[in-house]
Amino acid sequence: MNTPDKQQRLLTIFARLLPLVDSVSDKVRFAALLGVALDVWIFIWLFFLKSWSLTSALIVAGVVLLPILVLLRFWWALEELKDIPTIAGQMLDDAKGEIGATVQGIRAGQVQKLGFLSSAKSLWSIGSLASEARELLGSYISIGTLVNPFSLVLGVLSLLFVLLLVLVSLILVILALF
What we know:
This is ABC transmembrane type-1 domain-containing protein. By secondary structure, the protein is mostly helical. It has helices spanning 3-49, 54-82, 84-107, 116-138, 143-147, 149-177.
């Protein structure tokens, strides 16, 4: 299979994947924003309407906020996933440029002699390139959040918690009215 066919398959996969990722990202963001609003409502209900101490109301609001933070982590990972086609294109262009420069250097006869010092220097260069690659891909480590089974279970539980938070908030609204 030649390169244009692979590129076309990759573009097809991205074209099918990105609308799904965008839709899920929007829904997770909505759930997180709803959770934050309900967390604020619970704090107001506890502190102002039920006259709990500020410390107690803040502790309850902080505990309620933890699953929402998990949802925000998923939202962040999904938002980064939407930028992968752009990043992949930039990385491909950079790699083509580097390979072209190396081939031109070899054709021009600019090949370095092998020796102990040049080998040590090459190892140092490989190490620095590896650290640069780690820094480049470091912002995409959060994609691991989307493939880690424990993290996925935690995300689903967080979504269920936001649903429970909606029910509790509705009950609190009814109690506040009566």
